[in-house]
Every structure is written in structure tokens, then in C-alpha cells.
Amino acid sequence: MAMKIKVCILGDPSVGKTSLVRHYTEGYFKENYLSTIGVDFKGKTMRVDICGQTKEVIMTIWDIGGQTLWATVRSNYLNGAQGVLLLFDLTNKSSLLHIRDWYMDVTRVLGKTVPISIIGNKCDLDYNPNIEVIAMDLTKQLRPENPNIRFYITSAKTGTNMDQVFEEISMDVLNKIKGSQIP
Ligand SMILES: Nc1nc2c(ncn2[C@@H]2O[C@H](COP(=O)(O)OP(=O)(O)OP(=O)(O)O)[C@@H](O)[C@H]2O)c(=O)[nH]1
Ligand SMILES: [Mg+2]
Question: What would you measure as the largest C-alpha separation in the chain, in angstroms?
């Protein structure tokens, strides 16, 4: 039987959350920007190899609009999430500086060991390589409390690293569920 998992994607407005989810689940990219109001849902059925077994996983991705400012509303959306993607825009430093706040928000609701990936999106554009160094440093700082935290650069436009992001977060979620079943 297929397992169902819930993954949330968060980050500042316009960093490319909806675009990344759309490209992954529907296979196309759109240049125009239409801000997500509240939350949007997309589903994807995938096959994940775990401990030598192939499992069918139905991933529901909750794409939470970056302008959803009310913390209570956001925490309602986050409830029950098993994995989290925190997105920033490699060409927008302030969106990276806000990642720590997004991280705090998420771990307040879901605990510190929830599988999380930090993602620098729009790698198809020119960006200052320093921003990647800062993001890797932040990931390292968070690793003692969240040992499996990952960092990627992606492009929702070209699809660079897109499959890895979603496959690896689902593997992390399944591994965590499996670990918690061991008495
Ligand atoms: N070049 C490039 N543009 C991108 C990429 N990802 C998103 N964009 C563009 O950036 C703009 C914002 O993308 P969205 O996916 O709507 O951003 P969002 O994070 O969902 O924004 P909110 O819903 O307001 O929180 C759009 O014009 C996209 O076409 C990317 O990887 N590369
Ligand atoms: Mg959006």
C-alpha cells in the first residue's frame, strides 16, 4: 500500500516556491509571478528506494504563500508536516537572511528533528557566490540540532537538482518514520 507523506515548502515571497513545485509536479515553468494567497496543494506519486525495498509514496506538497504573515495561520498549515523545504532566492540576500526565522517558526511547531532542506533557488541567474557560502555556513550551524539538514541550489526554471530535493526529503521522512517504529 502506498504511504502518504506531507511536506511543506516555505520562504519569502517570490523566491520560487510555487514554480519549483509546479515544475516538479506538472513539468512546466512560468515566467509571470502570481503570489500564492494562503496555501496551495500539489500531489505527486513517487517510488522511493529504502533499505533495498521500493516503496510507493504519495507526497502532498503544501506550498505556503510567503505573504502569509499570520503565524497562527502558518502553524495550522504546518501541523502534521513530516518534511520541510525552506527556499530562498540566490539573487536576493534578504531572502537568505530570513531563512533562520523560517527555521525557528517551523521547528517551534514541528520540533527540531523534523527533516529540513535549505534551498537556494534561481541558480540559472547570475548571483554572488558568497551567498552560497553564507547558506552553507548556516546549514552547518544548524546541523548539531538537526543532523540530516541538507542544502541545495536549484532552478525551478531549468529543473536543476529539482528531483533530488523531493526524492531526498521523502527518503528522510521515510527513514524517520521507520526509525520511530523501532522499539
Ligand atoms: N530565472 C528564474 N526565475 C524563477 C525561478 N523560480 C521562480 N522564478 C520566477 O520568480 C517569480 C516568483 O516565483 P513564484 O514561484 O511565484 O514565487 P513564490 O515563492 O511562490 O512566491 P509567493 O507565492 O508570493 O510566496 C516568478 O516570476 C517566477 O517565474 C528560477 O529558478 N529561475
Ligand atoms: Mg507562490
Answer: 50
- Phi then psi for residue 29, to 5 deg, are -125, 140
Best mutation site among 8, 12, 18, 123 for ligand 1 pocket (most ligand atoms within 8 Å of CB) = 18
**Average pLDDT across the chain, whole number:** 93
> Which residue has the CA at smallest separation from atom 16 of ligand 1?
33
Tens of pLDDT, residues 39-88 = 999 999 999 887 788 889 999 999 999 887 666 788 889 999 999 999 99
Q: 3-180: which CATH architecture?
A: 3-Layer(aba) Sandwich (3.40)
* Ligand 1 pocket check for 67: Cβ under 6 Å: yes
Could you tell me if the CB of 17 is within 6 A of ligand 1? yes
Residue-range domain boundaries for the chain: 3-180
> Which segments in the chain show pLDDT lower than 50?
183
Output the CA–CA distances (angstroms, integers) from residue 123 to 16, 94, 135, 156, in the order listed.
11, 16, 13, 9
CB of 65 sitting under 6 A from ligand 1:
yes
